[in-house]
TrEMBL record:
CDD domains: dTDP_GD_SDR_e (cd05246). It holds the Pfam family Epimerase. InterPro entries: dTDP_Gluc_deHydtase, Epimerase_deHydtase, NAD(P)-bd_dom_sf. Residues 9-279 form the NAD-dependent epimerase/dehydratase domain. This is dTDP-glucose 4,6-dehydratase. Gene3D superfamilies: NAD(P)-binding Rossmann-like Domain, UDP-galactose 4-epimerase, domain 1. PANTHER family: DTDP-D-GLUCOSE 4,6-DEHYDRATASE-RELATED (PTHR43000). It comes from Hallella faecis. Belongs to the NAD(P)-dependent epimerase/dehydratase family.
């Protein structure tokens, strides 16, 4: 059956936040590709994220663990996989601080198992690695942390400026692709390690790999342990907003659909063995984001704008909390012509509206173990 498709692409972690947007984009945009979504369905994986495309003829879901080499090998052969877009991972920094083993297991050993499955499958074919691609999705956190300095940085090069009023840089240094890796958290250490394994498979065996490192994503279907969905949900229910430390840490935010668009472009046109940074030139201090979330949520709920500012609660800081992430994504713009499609204000408005309109989705993912997680993570802060 697979032979009738032009390409057979395995997307790992496709039931998670970013993965579900990538799966949706590929299934809808490429009816002549077979998209095989391989996901273990951990607490972060949710098939409700893909309800709208689950019955498409070019889509297959397989519940499987990337750490299971034999199953990965069998899926590669059975579906004649010629491209892999690898997103499956443990992704939450706070969880990695509590349980680093799980992060090493999934992110390092899982990536290695997938690489080895691809290697043994592709090397056994007459054409070998020709026409194949292993695309690994990574994070800007591998570069470590930048300092807050004067607010002058590189001017945003995008025609769609990240934000109309807000300035976009909190320092003069940015993460570029040639920077040395300096991960600090168990999460970023595990992602750094997996990036090294991917590059090693190119350098040692000639596998056609690509790595991209992206900044903080926001948008629909993000699990509400992460800052933006957690806080929207708490504002709605008038629960305290646990801001770590002073809330002065800076992150560069990108709308998730723009990350998925970049992945599509790089999968098709990126240079083998290369690395691309993906980011929005859109830096915000956490406390300023929180204020935007309160104002927007209040307004959309028909409350007085800013009425819920008193929910802001400063709590014990995250251990080893990285101060500032700032991605320089000019290489991707210059070489492949990518730009974000919308301004941050538009993206946040869409996002808040989506969570308010999809309370069922939130209720579903916050039932069960989520309550226990919330208690454990926040009661002692
Ligand atoms: P997520 O936690 O929302 O989703 C991860 C998905 O991977 C889930 O569906 C989960 O079930 C699946 N998964 C976990 N372990 C698995 C295993 N052993 N086998 C198969 N599936 C497994 O994560 P996300 O935020 O969508 O991030 C996706 C990828 O993008 C990750 O690799 C992450 O490091 C990277 N990334 C995330 C961001 C961000 O802001 N969220 C930014 C840059 C890079
Ligand atoms: O930079 C890319 C990374 O962005 C991805 O690789 C990770 O997978 C993703 O989780 C994200 O990591 P962060 O740690 O930056 O995201 P998080 O939403 O957890 O936190 C954003 C900022 O908000 C961070 O400075 C910590 C702070 N924070 C977070 C939570 C959950 C709070 O102040 N309070 C909170 O309750």
């Amino acid at each position: 059956m697979e032979q009738q498709f032009k390409r057979n692409i395995m997307i790992t972690g496709g039931a998670g936040f970013i993965g579900s947007h990538v799966v949706r984009l590929f299934v809808n945009k490429y009816p002549d590709y077979h998209i095989i979504n391989v996901d273990k369905l951990t607490y972060a994986g949710n098939l409700a994220n893909l309800k709208d495309i689950e019955n498409q003829p070019n889509y297959t879901f397989v519940k499987a663990d990337i750490c299971d080499f034999d199953t990965m090998r069998q899926l590669m052969e059975q579906h004649h996989i010629d491209g892999i877009i690898h997103l499956a991972a443990e992704s939450h920094v706070d969880r990695s601080i509590r349980d680093p083993f799980t992060f090493a297991h999934t992110n390092v050993m899982g990536t290695l198992s997938l690489l080895q499955a691809a290697k043994t499958t592709w090397e056994a074919l007459p054409e070998g690695y020709e026409g194949k691609r292993f695309y690994h999705i990574s994070t800007d956190e591998v570069y470590g942390a930048l300092e807050l300095t004067d607010p002058e940085g590189i001017e945003s090069p995008f025609t769609t400026k990240a934000s109309s009023e807000h300035h976009h840089a909190y320092g003069s240094k940015f993460f570029t692709e040639d920077l040395k890796y300096q991960p600090h958290s168990p999460y970023s250490a595990s992602k750094a390690s997996s990036d090294h394994f991917v590059r090693a498979f190119h350098d040692t065996y000639g596998m056609p790999t690509i790595v991209t490192n992206c900044s903080n994503n926001y948008g629909p279907y993000q699990f509400p342990e992460k800052l933006i969905p957690l806080f929207i949900n708490n504002i709605r229910h008038r629960k305290p907003l646990p801001v770590y430390g002073e809330g002065l840490n800076v992150r560069d935010w990108l709308y998730v659909v723009d990350h998925a668009r970049a992945i599509d472009l790089i999968f098709h046109e990126g240079k083998v063995a290369d690395t691309y940074n993906i980011g929005g030139f859109n830096e915000w201090k956490n406390i300023d984001i929180v204020k935007v979330l309160i104002n927007t949520t209040d307004r959309l709920l028909g409350r007085a704008e800013g009425e819920d500012m008193n929910l802001i609660t400063h709590v014990t800081d995250r251990k080893g909390h990285d101060m500032r992430y700032a991605i320089d994504s000019r290489k991707l713009q210059r070489e492949l012509g990518w730009e974000p499609s919308l301004q941050f204000e538009e993206g946040i408005e869409k996002t808040v509206r989506w969570y308010l309109d999809n309370q069922d989705w939130l209720d579903n993912v916050t039932s069960g173990n989520y309550q226990r997680y919330y208690e454990e993570m926040y009661s002692k802060r």
